[in-house]
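input
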Amino acid sequence: MKHLLVLLFFSLSVYSQKNTEAFASTSLNETREISITLPPNYQTNTSKEYPLLVLLDGEYLYDPFYGAISYGTYWDDLPETIIVAIKQGNSDQREKDCGFNPMDGLPTARATAFFNFINYELLPYIDKKYRTAPFRIIAGHDTTAGFLNAFLYKESPIFNAYIALSPELAPETENYVVDKLKNLKQPLFYYQALASGDVNRIKDPVIRLDEKLKKIDSPQLNYKLDQFTASHYAVVLYAIPNALYHIFDVYKPISSVEFSEKIVTLEQGYTDYLVTKYDVITNKLGLKVPVRVNDFKAIEAAILKNKAYGELDQLSQIADKNYPKAMLARYELGLMYEKMGELKKAAKKYQSASQLDPIGGLTKDMMINKYYDLINQKESNGKDKN
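output
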């Protein structure tokens, strides 16, 4: 129920309006309707690249995915994402787009044309026209969810993440998928969802595939199956938040639980933890994300609690790399010298910080006040000695 409420929170003002285009496909020999939605800051943040989400069944999967991503990006739990939805029309059109040979489970000639439309026409078009990061997600429901596995069959999987909602798996899909996923050379996310209301012809193959995938011992595979008490169509609303948070789990900022259970309990290496966290985001998701200010403050708090003041120097270097025009780096050095009792050096760093841009809760007035407080404290200590 919690996830249903989340999806009802559609922050329509967060994302720009979607643009609908008529895409003339040579592979399909027809024009297909697609919609493209860009993040709200796309036009102003001209250097940023965004992950790409391709939706099959774009008519009805767009809104729930759009809502979940809008909500997640509001809290910075999910990255802003370019959404491309493919309209597939009625059930006959879906069956033609995603048909398979009943003997070997491979796409039919028509489905191969649909595959080529996405792989050789749509994706290059989107990559050329928009600033896409090297991280692609594809999602589908029942018929289209089974079809998206075809994008795994290439030597290098075309997508980095697969969201299959109550997938109708073609014959031999279990074997094809397992063979590909046990020999991965790069991180890949594979998510499946089932509903209690799904018929057995959907459930049974997915359960068999699940049993095989759980036996794969590969650090590159990030796999999850969720089963919900829901109808075949309601499973979409339950599963989408789980799927997105499964894929982007490493993207999330440091939480209070992460801080108390994983960071503050360390004996040392607090700044190393921060560096590793953001390296994982880059390596797994292909996203270059500046270290969040709140994450700096979390690491700073752990350092202060454990009196590992020397690590503030390294934290300052990370701050300078991420926010060279802001006062954060000088502030961290000032804090280090202050805690070590070197008040003159600390005062100079705070004074220097006051000349730079404010960031987070750090302000010019705060730096000036800290400067004078330390100067007065130093003078008072000098008088006491006399």
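quick obs: Residues 364-385 form the longest helix (22 residues).
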